Structure prediction request, 355 residues.
Amino acid sequence: MASFSSFAVKHRLQENSKLLKLDKLIDWSRFESLLRGIHKNDIDSKGGRRCYDKICMLKLVLLGQWNSLSDEELEYAVRVRLDFISFCGFDIEDKVPDHSTICRFRNKLIEIDLIDKILTEVNNQLSENHLKVAKANLAVIDATLIESNSRPNRTKTIEEHIIKDREEVTSTDTNAGTESESEFTMEESDSSDPDAKWLQKGNKYHFGYKSFATTDEEGYICKTKTLPANKSEINQMSDMVIDSREFSGDKGYDSKSNREFLRNRGIKTRLMYKKPKGKPMTKWQKRFNKAVSKRRFIVEQSFGTLKRRFKFNKASYFTTKKVNAQFTLKAICLNLLKAVNKIKAFIPPEKLELG
Prediction:
C-alpha cells in the first residue's frame, strides 16, 4: 500500500502529466516475465542481497533515454523530481539506485538481448489499446547516421580509403549485392570505439554508425538495427521486414532478391528503382519513384523526432550492440510519446491507483 507521501506526490503533479498518463497506459506487470532472471536472487534466494525492483529499474532506464540524461544525471533527477519518483514507484523516503546500479541494469538488459523484446511488448500493448495498428498497411524502412561517442585520435584522413555512401551498390545486382568494405585501419585502430567506421556522404565525412528503422504508416518504430557506418543498406532489408500489406524503401534497397523476398511473403513491393547502369530510367519508373518518395516522410519524421526531441544525433556508448540498444530504447520512448499524445482526455488524479 502506498504511503501518504506518495499519495501527496501524485496529487501535486499536474493533471496532464505525460508520465502519469504513460504509467496508466502501460501494464508494467507484463514485463515481469521478460525480466525474470535478470537478478540472481530471482531464481536463487542465496544469489546475493535483495535488488531494486526490476520494473522500477526498467522505468528508470527509459526515463534516462526519454530525457537524454547520463546515469549520474538520472541518479540526481530521481532524487529530486516528483514526477520521476512517482513514475518509478519510489517513495520520497526511499533510497534510490545510484548511477552504477543503473548502468549495470542497462548493461544486463543488453547482455541478455531483452531490449528488442521490450520494444515488441510495448508495441503489442499500444495495439491492444488501439493507439497503434496491429498490422500495418504500409511499412517504411530507412537508415540514419549516428555519430560515434569517440573521435579518432588522428584527424588526418586518407580520403580514397573511405567508403562513399552506396558507391558499391549497383542496380544491376541480381542478388542482395556485395559490400566492398575498406579497412581504414589507421583511423579505426586509434579510436576508443572499436566498431565505429568512416563513411563519406556527399562532401561530408561521418565516423560512427548507421541505424536502420522500419516504421508503420503512423511512424511507430517496429524494428531497429544498427551497423558500422560503412555498411551498405541493400543487404539489410530482409531482417527489417514486418507484417504489412506494402513495404517501401528508397533506391538503396533496390535489388532483384529484395523484391522477390517481399513478393514471396505476399507483400506489395514499393521499393524505389535505381537508375540502370548506362541506361535511362523509364517514364513509369520515374512516376513510381516520385509516388514512393512522397511517403518517405513517415520514417524521416520519426528520425527527426529521435534526433531533436530525444537528442540522438550522437551515441552515448561504444560498440555496435550498445549503440543499437540505445537506438531501440529511444525508439520505445518515441512510440510511447506518440501514444501519450494521442490520449485526448487526462486521467483525473482521484482515479489513479495509489496502491
Remarks:
- Residues 4-112 form one domain.
